[in-house]
Design a protein that fits this description.
The protein is α/β, with parallel strands linked by helices. It has helices at residues 10-16, 26-35, 56-67, 81-90, 113-129, 144-153, 163-166, 172-191, 207-213, 224-233, 235-245, and strands at residues 4-8, 40-43, 72-77, 94-97, 133-139, 157-161, 195-199, 219-222. It has an 8-stranded parallel beta barrel, surrounded by 7 helices.
Length: 250
């Protein structure tokens, strides 16, 4: 079964926030994406609310609950107490824990699992008690011993940070090397019974090769390239293009 597409709405929210106006509508474009067959929506609310605002979270929760039951809501973020309280109020299907500093422009590395295993175990237990699936953001190329720490922490999935692969758009040899690094880490997770998500700088062009290496991937969270393509093709057609790139039969 092909991976599900989770549409990351951060770039839509960033465009909206350039003006003190309600458009483009995060909820409205989320609805269009779901109508076009997206499997879910992703947001990453940061403390400064520079893109997704805290008020967007309950509005998107309501959209899915009322109009698209069965689709998944994924909230990403660093597990500060404020963030954990936000997700406990929203009860998303999945919480993707990232090691970002609040000042970072975007996620650019995975967890140091060896150093943070205890912290993550406590947080995963809290999320599981709230009925949410924890997913841990990790770098491609980490070995099975580190993936086992994610399993032991209670994560249901890992999300592979695919930024370095996305950055190889003009270097086929480097891209092939990153596909194997990501694939090896995914294989370790899969063998332990962990689900595998992928995300960061994924495009219609680079997805097929990665999916061929990781055919069992559960979900692809895509925002920047999808939003850029939506300016050319519209949101509905862009979602369909990414679904086809993931191997979905439309």
């Amino acid at each position: 079964m092909a991976a599900s597409l989770s549409v990351n709405l951060n770039a839509v929210a960033m465009l909206r926030n350039r003006r003190d106006l309600p458009w483009p509508s995060v909820v409205g474009l989320g609805r269009v994406a779901l109508e076009a067959g997206a499997g879910g929506l992703t947001v990453h609310p940061r403390p400064d609310q520079r893109h997704i605002r805290f008020s967007d979270v309950p509005a998107l929760r309501q959209l899915i609950d009322r109009e698209f039951p069965g689709r998944e809501f994924n909230i990403e973020g660093y597990p500060s107490e404020d963030f954990l309280q936000l997700v406990e109020a929203a009860r998303p299907d999945q919480v993707t824990l990232v090691p970002d500093d609040p000042s970072q422009a975007t996620s650019d590395h995975g967890w140091d699992l060896a150093a943070n295993g205890g912290l993550l175990k406590d947080i995963c237990r809290r999320l599981l008690d709230g009925g949410m699936r924890p997913s841990l953001f990790v770098d491609g190329g980490i070995g099975s011993d580190l993936v086992a720490i994610a399993k032991d922490a209670g994560a249901g999935r890992i999300e592979l940070y695919t930024g370095p692969y996305g950055g190889c758009f003009n270097d086929a040899s480097a891209a092939a090397s990153w596909i194997e690094k990501l694939g090896a880490t995914a294989d370790s997770a899969h063998s332990l019974g962990l689900g595998v998500n992928i995300g960061h700088d994924l495009t219609v062009d680079n997805l097929p090769a990665l999916m061929a290496r990781i055919p069992y991937a559960d979900e692809a969270s895509i925002g920047h390239a999808l939003t850029a393509d939506a300016l050319l093709y519209g949101m509905s057609e862009t979602v369909r293009r990414f679904r086809r790139a993931l191997g979905q039969q439309l």
